[in-house]
Amino acid sequence: MDKHDVGRGLRLEDRYVPGLLEEIARQSEGNPHWLERERLMTKAPRLASTEPLQLLSVVIPARDEEGSIAGTVEHLHVELRLRGISHEIVVVDDGSTDSTWELLKSRGAALCVAETEERTTPDVVTAAFVYYRFRKPSYTADERSAMVARIGEHLAAGRDVFAYFKHEETPEGALYAVDLLRGVGQT
Length: 187
Hints:
By secondary structure, this protein is α/β, with parallel strands linked by helices. It contains 6 helices and 5 strands.
């Protein structure tokens, strides 16, 4: 991936790329591996303003996808690049035991380092940016210190870091995020 294709700290959600979903739907006709055309078209978010899209984040779920992830990431990258769409590709792994991570690294796609109470994705750098999903309901002071240290390493290496905390039931996620930002000197 070219440097301009990776994240810069900006996340645009619910943006509509004119023609892109229609093209995906057109290519998916008769192909059982793609989502149904109707679902794509009815679920497509629409741009609320005329502000141009600055970055498209593509998130792909995966588990033991060494046979298909490289082609999927490469195809997305080529199609988006041909259309001049600045993008990043993030793969959320669900415990792969094959070579999925190595294939992501060879294609410049970020592995989402996700953790819950039951599982943790290894902290593997596969792109020029890193993406964390902290989903446990609580973290100890030592765990938060380790987060600050690891994210500080990424920032020192020149990588953009995107970290998200669980925030559904309690305010801890927001408080952890503020502490993390302070710890790495971002506030």
